[in-house]
Specification:
mainly beta
């Protein structure tokens, strides 16, 4: 679905095996406006930026008790292959609570689960990230002042830094409170859990 400058609420929906073309989220693309997803399942979707959801142009995305499973960011250009589950940019905001990200991947870039480009913001509370993978930042790349509260990161994998979280190239001051990191791996570089 494509949403341009509107306010929409999506509840109890399943998005499965959808594909987005160039720079599009596999299941949903939000240009401006506000989109709230509650109790939704995103499974097996693919797109170059945001395997399941992509936003731009001052969009606001809220995710409540949603499940993201086996979604894929897939592009031959590593700068376009970002956010296996969700990708936001263009002064957008992403707010997630009680969501799970499992087995999502960025095949040729960073952030297997979620990526908020440096002029956007991300908050996550009581979310779980399990078994996500990417070239860098197995679960998330932190590029602004993200706030993560009571989140759990388990079995995430990156090849080059930050098995769970990567924030090595940005001058950022994220806030992590009550988060747990277990069995995350960086294969060839530093930061099995976090690379700074």
């Amino acid at each position: 679905i494509s949403m341009d400058g509107i306010t929409v609420s999506v509840t109890n929906c399943i998005f499965m095996n959808n594909t987005g073309q160039y720079l599009g989220g596999g299941a949903a693309h939000v240009e401006g406006g506000e989109a709230t997803f509650t109790d939704c399942t995103f499974s097996g979707n693919s797109g170059s930026q945001g395997g399941a959801i992509r936003s731009n142009y001052n969009a606001s995305i809220t995710l409540n008790t949603c499940q993201f499973t086996n979604n894929t960011a897939n592009d031959t250009n590593p700068y376009d292959c970002l956010g296996g589950g969700v990708y936001v940019e263009g002064n957008s905001t992403l707010s997630m609570s009680d969501c799970s990200f499992t087995g999502n991947q960025s095949t040729n870039g960073n952030a297997g689960a979620a990526y908020a480009y440096h002029n956007s913001s991300l908050t996550a509370e009581n979310c779980t990230f399990d078994g996500n993978s990417a070239i860098g930042a197995g679960a998330m790349e932190l590029t602004s002042d993200e706030v993560l509260t009571n989140c759990t990161f388990t079995n995430n994998t990156a090849e080059y830094g930050g098995g769970a979280l990567y924030m090595g190239e940005w001058n950022v001051t994220p806030t992590l409170t009550g988060c747990t990191f277990t069995d995350n791996t960086s294969t060839y570089y530093t930061g099995g859990a976090i690379h700074n």
